[in-house]
Write a structure and sequence with these properties.
single chain, alpha+beta, two-stranded antiparallel sheet, binds heme C
């Protein structure tokens, strides 16, 4: 591969979040480029800036990483004292200070040859920088390069190519997940009738709401939705921490009848005007904004859509059982698609029986 092509791959993968690299492209990059931390321009101190008198126990590495990836710390001053040049880099430390975050500060949970929680529910849950990053291998285009993962088929691999494979290590079939969390391997299964296109390109090529530049062939990443809420040049990429619940990049309300609900997250990629002008589902606006006449304040996208995927229905339809129950005539809780922008719902919600209620544009 020519140098020019290599530069193009680098440019596209950094300029567009949604641009996703193929296995072959990643292999080419990994062979052609020296890992970030072993380049003297990034790390003038070389091996010593991480290994000088500091033993990595594998459980407190975040303190060492914050030397460069955080505000100036005691550790960086200590390194300067022994004349190791520290180059301050993207600050991820302040994202980990936010209320919703990956719990990297739980100490001493990693052991050599540890049993992964997938097999043993009694192993405590944890996440460390090193679960998602390998400082000897990582590349700007592939920050998780060198880290293990689990494929969409549920197989453990030593080197994860795709970001989602890293996530599936802990958000797949693990026996020790919090009860409200769902198995992401099942939600993103390409055999499902619908899913957000993280693992495979989408199945629906007729979506009036998609913003310009996005098509049904676009691949997105978990980190397009989950990550820092900081905007602008100080933003560090990565699923580290956020002021938004569920570590989301933009505000999103899941609860019903909230005073000031926000769906900015969805509107990053779907046109708000299109959704609220009922360009697809003709009753979007009245469900999202509510009905003054009934004194009903409206409901969240999550009441009808699963943001990841649906094992049963098209259009990511999966009703939130907290608000939607069976209709009482025939005891059904069902969505039926009946053609383009036509369908029927059998359910009970906000005290209204749908047995069924149908829509057609
Ligand atoms: C950016 C920080 C960083 C730099 C730079 C770095 N290392 Fe490491 N190194 C680590 C961390 C973190 C571990 C612990 C890895 C683990 O527990 O999985 C480690 C582990 C090791 C180990 C133990 C075996 C292993 O691979 O787990 C050796 C040997 C090692 N490093 C050598 C080096 C050498 C030689 C250099 C310079 C060429 C270097 N390191 C540069 C962070 C760094
Ligand atoms: C000596 C300073 C230094 C230390 C210590 C350090 N980094 Fe970095 N790191 C950098 C620089 C410089 C970059 C490149 C610029 C950027 O992305 O901010 C970088 C980039 C990264 C990236 C982005 C992907 C890439 O390869 O470009 C990741 C991920 C990362 N570092 C993780 C870590 C982790 C985890 C640790 C602790 C084990 C660590 N770093 C310790 C300086 C450091
Ligand atoms: C080594 C295990 C591990 C890996 C790998 C991992 N996570 Fe997590 N994640 C956790 C733990 C532990 C929590 C804290 C809550 C819990 O126990 O699930 C968490 C929490 C979350 C939350 C917040 C959930 C909530 O209920 O508020 C999101 C979102 C998330 N992770 C997404 C991701 C994504 C995206 C990736 C891949 C880039 C990933 N995780 C990789 C262990 C992991
Ligand atoms: C299109 C945006 C989007 C993408 C892409 C996305 N998520 Fe989420 N995720 C959300 C939203 C919104 C919520 C919270 C609301 C809800 O659960 O209805 C959430 C919740 C979660 C939770 C906590 C609750 C649960 O369902 O378990 C975890 C864990 C999580 N996501 C992990 C992931 C992982 C791993 C990936 C990639 C494989 C991913 N997400 C991709 C939007 C997204
Ligand atoms: C990072 C961009 C991005 C974000 C954020 C996003 N979407 Fe999407 N969404 C897409 C893309 C791309 C598709 C096209 C997939 C296809 O063609 O099947 C899509 C498709 C959909 C579909 C149709 C799926 C089908 O198979 O018919 C629904 C419904 C949907 N999104 C709802 C949401 C909701 C609700 C949110 C907020 C929680 C959201 N999206 C946030 C990019 C995004
Ligand atoms: C749960 C997985 C996870 C954990 C834990 C995690 N990261 Fe990340 N990090 C990511 C992902 C995913 C990206 C890349 C996101 C993207 O491509 O947009 C990333 C990106 C980064 C970057 C690049 C920032 C930029 O804007 O260039 C740095 C630096 C980094 N991580 C450092 C760290 C450090 C230091 C720790 C521990 C304190 C850590 N990460 C813990 C998932 C994680
Ligand atoms: C009351 C249930 C309900 C709620 C609440 C709801 N939707 Fe939908 N949505 C649907 C149905 C049903 C369809 C499928 C319409 C069809 O094509 O038959 C749909 C289709 C979609 C589509 C795919 C077609 C298109 O317009 O591109 C997107 C995207 C979407 N919804 C986004 C959202 C977002 C964002 C929210 C919250 C702001 C939301 N929906 C709230 C029921 C709902």
């Amino acid at each position: 591969m020519s140098k020019c092509l290599l530069m193009l791959i680098t440019f596209f993968s950094l300029a567009f979040n949604a641009f996703s690299l193929t296995k072959e492209e990643i292999d080419v990059l990994a062979q052609a480029k020296k890992p970030t931390h072993l380049l003297s321009e990034n790390n003038p101190g070389g091996c010593k800036s991480c290994h000088a008198g500091i033993r990595y126990s594998g459980s407190e590495e975040e303190v060492q990483c914050y030397t460069c990836h955080g505000p100036k710390t005691k550790a960086s001053k200590k390194l300067e004292k022994i004349r190791i040049n520290v180059k301050q880099s993207k600050d991820v430390a302040s994202d980990f200070d936010k209320p919703y975050k990956h719990p990297v500060e739980k100490r001493g949970l990693h052991k050599y040859g540890e049993v992964f929680p997938v097999t043993n529910p009694n192993v405590p849950r944890h996440s460390e920088c090193l679960d998602c990053h390998s400082p000897h291998d990582s590349l700007p285009e592939v920050p998780h390069w060198g880290v293990s993962g689990v494929t969409i088929d549920g197989k453990f691999v030593k080197k994860a190519y795709y970001e989602y494979e890293v996530c599936f290590k802990c958000h797949g079939a693990d026996a020790n997940k919090p009860v409200y969390q769902r198995n992401k391997i099942r939600e993103f299964n390409p055999n499902n009738p619908s899913y957000h296109p993280v693992v495979e390109k989408g199945k629906n090529n007729y979506l009036p709401s998609l913003k310009e530049g996005l098509t049904y062939e676009t691949i997105i990443k978990c980190s397009d939705c989950h990550g820092s809420d900081t905007k602008g040049s100080r933003r560090a990429r990565g699923v580290h921490g956020s002021n938004n619940d569920y570590i989301l990049v933009s505000p999103y309300t899941k609860k019903e009848e909230t005073l000031k609900p926000e769906y900015d997250l969805c509107y990053e990629c779907h046109r708000k005007e299109s959704i609220l002008n009922n360009e697809s589902f003709p009753f979007h606006r009245e469900h999202i904004e509510g009905l003054k006449a009934r004194n009903w304040k409206g409901t969240s996208c999550s009441t009808c859509h699963n943001p990841h995927g649906s094992e049963k229905n098209k259009f990511l339809i999966e009703f939130n059982p907290d608000y939607v129950t069976k209709e009482t005539t025939t005891n059904r809780l069902e969505f039926k698609s009946e053609g383009i922008f036509r369908g029927s719902c059998y359910l009970k919600c906000h005290n209204v029986e749908h047995n069924p209620k149908s829509y057609a544009k």
